[in-house]
## 1
Amino acid sequence: MGTWGTGPFDSDAAEDFADRVEEIASEDRALLIRERLEGAALPGAETPHAEILAAAAIVVAGMPLGGNFSWNEDYPGISSWLEGADLGDLSLLAATALESCFAQDSWYWRSWATAEERIEAQGVVATLHRSLQT
């Protein structure tokens, strides 16, 4: 089906990544997210943008205000997936990955069918980025 919305879990790739995180042992979740986020910042990285959005949203969900986002309804318990992990370090990595993958001149922004969808997607990335910096 591909992508059906602008939210961080509104694509097959993002949902698959979130399902993978949810299914593995809790002590391995932060490591998987760290690997995905670190990989995104490497020159020439080909980490799917959808996975970066999902990883960043999972980190945000574990932060104090993270439970306030609507996407949490799709993943009950998401706010505790990274319990015990160093969220400060992960949030810095996630913010860096968002900056790297979603630069203003990124192909990602040109891939949206309408300007309205692109603006919504930009809002999602901006919200995640702001949340990671709190």
## 2
Amino acid sequence: MIPQQELSSKCGLILKRVKDGTSETIRLVGADGGASTVRKTAGIPFIGETNDSDRTLLIDANIDGLSRKRWHIWPRKQGKAVGACPLPHSNQFQIMIRLTPDETPDLDEAALAANSIT
């Protein structure tokens, strides 16, 4: 658990108006999921479970000739899909390749490019 005096310097604060006209302070902690170092250090429990059958491979990469004005989604066979989201303040996209539950992806660049297309 982070000591109280450190907690206030490591977290954002939000003022919330209460119905009676007063306000209360709410701490905002940056915690990004089950493996979050911030969440674990702050002693905040992660309620939920991991579903290993729903997996996605994420790749940040350059893609020539693809519009940066919108997301792109390409449905594939057997519930698979490939998507590309333009990343802000860069020329890169975040490519998302949905994996099947038993799939172990080949992380070689050429194999990933072929997997995205087929």
## 3
Amino acid sequence: MPRGRQWRALAIVAGGCVLGFPLLSALALQHISATRSLVFTGLLPLSTASFAVLRGKERPSPRSGPLPHWARRRWPDLPWRAAAAARWPAMR
């Protein structure tokens, strides 16, 4: 259970997830195409993981084991894939 000041932070995050994201996404869809919003929403997990590494200095635990074979092949070109996904709506 959260303690003391953690409740305030939890309420802010919950409000952003429950109210902020859907409302702001609906407002944004009035000005951009659904294709662009889909790419943006698809890149959110990548940005979340990037900020977790940069700000929280999070790393995979040794207990998580080595990367599976498909991840070892695809991990080095992840930035290029993200850039291609971001450019895709502009090319259409």
